[in-house]
Every structure is written in structure tokens, then in C-alpha cells.
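Q: How would the C-alpha cells look for this protein?
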Amino acid sequence: MKNSKYWIAFSSIEQIDSNFIQRLYNYFGDIKTAFEANTKELSQIEGLSVKKAENFVIHRDKVNPDKAMELVAGRGIKFYTFEDEKYPHLLHNIDNPPAVLYYKGDLESCNLQKTLAVVGSRRASSYAKDALNKILSEFRNTDICIVSGLASGIDTTAHVTALDSNLKTIGVIASGFDFTYPAANKHLYEKIENGNGAVVSEYYPTFEPIKFRFPQRNRIVSGLSYGTLVAEASLKSGALITANLTLEQGRELMCIPGLITNPNTEGIYKLLKNGATLVTCADDILNALNWEVKPPEQQKIFKSELEPDEEKIYKAIEIEEKGFDELLSLTGLEVETLLTNLTMMELKGIIKQVDGDRYRKID
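A: Here is the predicted structure in C-alpha cell form.
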């Protein structure tokens, strides 16, 4: 769109937020006119202080819209502005929608009619991760899209399980694309971007992952989704912020019950007592959201279909997962041969890598 560079230019100013941009856009009815407005014109906007208007003009005058646009394009970042037809319609309906949604990957391949947000503790228990993995795995090979925040803990489990289950996933980050946070998830970012969904952000590429941006990010996680599943949350947690945003946005709130002895489940039981839907299996989510999905095709692996070296590996992990060194010993294969076969078996959906260098079969 011809006006895209003005949306980008607005979003490149750190001293303002999307609320301010929307306010000016709604008043002037044109993003170019809004961006080029002078102090006198801005003073006509009801409730906008002179100080805020002057502050915007000072920072606006330092921005070249063409150069702001070039920076984004030069980094290979795609985007939708609030005016774009392809801007996710669910986000249009929330309070304070992002002025620009930057993304990497293939957002158009994600089914935005069946989006499920997943949130929870960064220091999640093994129980919560296992329970979430069990539930999301039941959606294997369907068109449901998992939305989360690409943080450690529950977010990471949600994205990884989605990838392992052949589901599209959207990661919403709290910085611009010049930063990867947490750094440990760099490989996960890349896997999502390379054909498995999209990583999205409302922030201009140079914006850092500052603390206050994480709660702001949460409104997009829930705002992109028809419902939010909370896997684990203490009484004072970002997950509870997202849960409240979900209710404010008129979306469905669901929770996985946890151990009552775990402090990270106190928020869960508070939400359940206040009417959130209890979830113990994928069908609970489908019922809550009134979704129907095609039954996943069972991909049974028969030994007769395996190559000789693949059969050795499959036999070694048929009962329980094994580490790389254990597989070397049990199969008698050379390191390179084993690595090649493990990679091929992952691509075929026969096995998956878990906990670093350990492998297990996919049922």
C-alpha cells in the first residue's frame, strides 16, 4: 500500500505507542495526514495534551519514512499495517490493536480461523509440560494453529509440541527482529520461520526486549486467538495477565489442572473457580470452542517399510527413548551414518528428538 511507509515510520518512534497512533489515525482518517500533522492541528484532538503533541513532533521530525521502510525491507521482514486487508481480523476487534504487525515466516499458511493461544509459567513443572504435550499432540496433523510467546517454559513446550505434531504455530515476541529472546530459542525461531508458521511482533526491528513490552505482547497472543489455554500460572504471573486479557477480549478461557501442592497452580484454580473451562484432553478444547477438525490420519510405521539402518535405530528405541551415545553402541553404526539416518527418520515423522540428544519413536 502507498501509505505503508507512514505506518512504519510511526511504529519506528519508541516514544509513542499503538494507542497514540490509532488516536491520530482515527482523528485524521488518513495515516499520511496524521504523520505530517503540525502541533496546531494536533492540539485540536480532544484529550491530547500539548506536551504529548510537541514530544511527538520532535521525534517525528527525525524520521524519514522512506528510510524507515528500507530498513524493514533490508532485513527481509514482512508486515501488515492496520489498513491492510490481510491484517488478522481478530486483532481488529481488540482494545489497542497493533498499528503494524511485522512477521517472518509464512503467516498466510496459518489457519487464523482456528487459533489457540497457550500461556503459562517460564519455570514450568515437568507435569505441566507433559500434560500440555499430551493435549496438544492429540491435534496432530489438523489445521489448528498454536499461538504463544516464544518464552522459555510453557511457551517453548507449546511451540515444540506443535512442530512435532505437524501443526502450524505463531510466536509473538516482545522486541523487534534484531533481537532473539531468549537466545536459547534461536533454533526454535528458525524452525517456525522456515515453513512451520510465523514469528510476529508489533515492534520496529531495532526495539529491544525491555521488561514492559512483555505484558504488552500478551494482548496480541490472546488477541490473535479464539481461546487461551493456561497450562500453569501463579497468582502473580504474566499468564494471568493474558488470562484477564482473554476475558476482556470476549474469548474463551481454558485451564489445565495441576498439582495443588505446586504454587504455580494457584492461579489455575482461581481461574477455574471463576468459570474457566477445565481441560484434560483435546476434545475439551474442541467442545469449548465449538470446533470440528478432520480426524488425523494414523501414520503407522511398519518395520517392512524401514531401511536396514533405520530398522536398527527403531528397534533400539521401540520400548523407551535413547541418547545418541546409547544408539551408537546398540546399533553399531558409524557416527555420520547414525546422524544421517536420525535426520531422515525425523523428517519422515518416525521419531523425534527430545531433551537434547535423546530420541523416541512417534506413536
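Residues 1-74 form a domain with the DNA polymerase; domain 1 fold (CATH 1.10.150).

The chain has a mean pLDDT of 91.

Upvote if useful.
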